[in-house]
Specification:
- It contains 6 helices and 8 strands.
- With about 220 residues, it is of the alpha/beta class.
- It has one domain.
- Strand 2, helix 2 and strand 3 form a beta-alpha-beta unit.
- Helix 3 packs across helix 4.
Length: about 220
């Protein structure tokens, strides 16, 4: 199974849920991570995950397809192309690049693919979103680009859905949109952030005004 997620909420928390499955888990990451950060990640995972660095080269797919064919779980981040083939798609009022390689690999390996996101909520709880599984199958060559663009568009739409619930939890700190659309996208994103901040402020005020329960008597 290929799990496709994003730099949203706490994907490591979702990974801890996966660790309860009695299956090997491979987590991918861009090969520019500081060695100390990688060491800490490996230590935190307690060896339940195998971290496979990505270079953006076609050879990255070999080990991932092999893991999928063995019935293992492969987790990837779908909101950064890492220099690999990608699709330019509408996203939050602008255009952005989304990688398509995950769908190609799932198709080659005959593995299901699931979009999964984790959202941190009040009280330190996490809300996990898992969208219906897909079973990518590459069509004829002349139809392939349109098919893969459609797959990536579905991920972009699912990511938009969870981002609108709490845009402050999207940790993707680099220019994500085209320069031409950046101003419009940033404005829409900022507006969404203001709505979330306002909602949280009202929730805190409401909580402060609510009567406190009497302590239990023993």
């Amino acid at each position: 199974m290929l799990v496709l997620t994003a730099h949203f909420g706490n994907w490591e928390a979702a990974g801890q849920m996966l660790s309860h499955m009695d299956l090997p888990i491979t987590v991918t990451g861009f090969d520019k991570e500081d060695p100390e950060v990688r060491r800490l990640f490996n230590q935190a995972s307690k060896q339940k995950f195998r971290l496979l660095p990505l270079t953006g080269q076609p050879t990255d797919a070999i080990a991932l397809v092999a893991a999928l064919r063995r019935g293992e779980v492969v987790a990837m981040l779908g909101d950064r192309p890492y220099g690999s083939p990608s699709a330019r798609l509408p996203f939050l009022g602008g255009e952005a690049s989304f990688p398509i390689g995950a769908y190609v690999m799932a198709s080659i390996a005959g593995a299901p693919l699931v979009h999964v996101f984790s959202l941190r909520e009040e009280g330190g709880h996490y809300h996990f979103f898992a969208f219906p599984p897909q079973h990518p199958q590459l069509p004829a060559h002349h139809e392939r680009d349109a098919y893969l663009f459609g797959c990536a568009a579905k991920f972009a739409a699912d990511l938009e859905f969870v981002l609108k619930r709490d845009p402050l939890q999207w940790y993707n700190f680099y220019p994500f949109w085209d320069e031409e659309a950046a101003r419009h996208s940033a404005s829409a994103f900022a507006s969404s952030r203001r709505r979330v901040v306002s909602r949280r402020s009202r929730e805190r005020e409401s909580s402060a005004l609510a009567p406190r329960p009497e302590p239990s008597k023993i």
